[in-house]
Each structure stands twice: as C-alpha cells, then as structure tokens.
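ARCHIVE CARD
SHELF: 3
SLOT: left
DATA:
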Amino acid sequence: MWFGIIDIIAFVVIIVGVIIEHRNAVVEEKKYQGKHSNGASF
C-alpha cells in the first residue's frame, strides 16, 4: 500500500513539474514573439 501511495505522489510531482515547465516555455515563447513579431501566435 505504501508503495502505491509513493508512486501516486511521484506521478503527481512529475505532472506538476511538466505543467510548470510548459507554462514557462509558453511565456518565454510569447516574450520572444513579442520582441520579434513574426506573425504566427499560439
């Protein structure tokens, strides 16, 4: 049972980390496009 709980906690931590990294990447992308207004915005 403990092993399952640890797995769930690790899984949640990984997912949260991925979401944060993705949000940071999106913010950086928007800053970059703001500086060099190319056109295609996401």
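SLOT: right
DATA:
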Amino acid sequence: MDSFLFFWGMYKRASFWRVLRDGYRPDGRTNIGLLTYSTLLLVFLIVHAFRNRNFYIYIDFLLIGLWVFWLWKSIKRAYRHYEEQYASRLEYYKQERQYLRYLIFRDEVIRDNISHGISISDALAHIETDLDTEVTDVLKTSIFITTGLSVVITLTVNLIGKWDTSYTLLVLFVSAITLLIGISILGSVRSRKVKLLELKRYLTWLQREEALTRATE
C-alpha cells in the first residue's frame, strides 16, 4: 500500500487546479495582467448584476470569453517546454489536459526521487484490488442533476414575460453556473474510480518510459 499512497500523493499534485494555478504563474512569476483582469472581471460581474441593462449581459459574456482565451494562452506559455517536445501526445490526450497532467505527475515523481521499496508494480496491483472492490452510487448524482435541471427549466417558464430580460438572463446564467459547479464538485468527490483508472494509466506510461530508458542505457 505504501507504493500506492506515494503515487496517489503525486497524482493529487497534478490536478487540473494545478494547471489553472500555473496559468497565473507562467515562468514562475505571477501574471499581473491576467490577475488584474480577473479581479476587474469579478467586479464588473457583481456591478452588472445590479444594473438593469440588457447589453450588460452581452458585455459579461464577452469579458468572460476574453478571460478564458487569456488564461488558455498563459497556460500554454507556462508549459511551452512540454508543447515543444510532446505536441502530438498533448493534442491526442487533450481532454481534461490528461497528458499534460501526466507530465506534471511524472516530474513530481522524479523530483521526489522514488525511495527504496516504492514499486510501480505494487501500486498497480493495489489499484486493481481497489477497482475490483470499488462501490459506486450514481443515484445521488442523478437526483442532483435532475433536480438542478428541473429548477432551471421552472425558472425559465416562470420568469419569461414577468421580469425584465436582463434579470431573467442573469438568473438563468447564475443558475446554470451553480448547477455546473455543483456537478463538478459532486463529480470530484465521487469520482474516485475515475481517478484510480487515470492513475493506472499514468503508472503504465511511467513504467514503459522507465523500461525504455533502461533499454537505451
């Protein structure tokens, strides 16, 4: 189990939130421009929420789009050393930036220097046991999603024609974002099986890289 716990700790360091955080600190220095823009964006969203103007909604969507683009560019700059060497792999495993997080995971393992007694094979065997005995419960997620969608649909029906368009769009926007955040949080709490499968893939890749390195020495 010690081997598994070691690699599990390294895996948690390579989370998607780590990628977002590094987007604000490319080259090891805080991206002041992006941080300032993010702060101003939050202020604008709060101020616009209390303004009865339809065009504010469109401005907010534009500002959010610019923020996403700027953050994406900053993340690419933070990991450009990986882009240059592993471009095709990063493109193929781009969903949830899986290969990028694997490279972070691998570098964390190398940085910590695998101690004596830590074995990839032992960790993989432990994962297989966990997967075979993992208990999942999709009921809570289904209820949450169904309830959330019902609330959004009910709000849409009740608010159309009653409130000003800007308030209606704002309520629907906030409801949708809240639902997405709730699903994400619920998924992160309940997705242990998915994380185990992803860690299994990472360890398999790492094992193959080590075997290839030994073969070429």
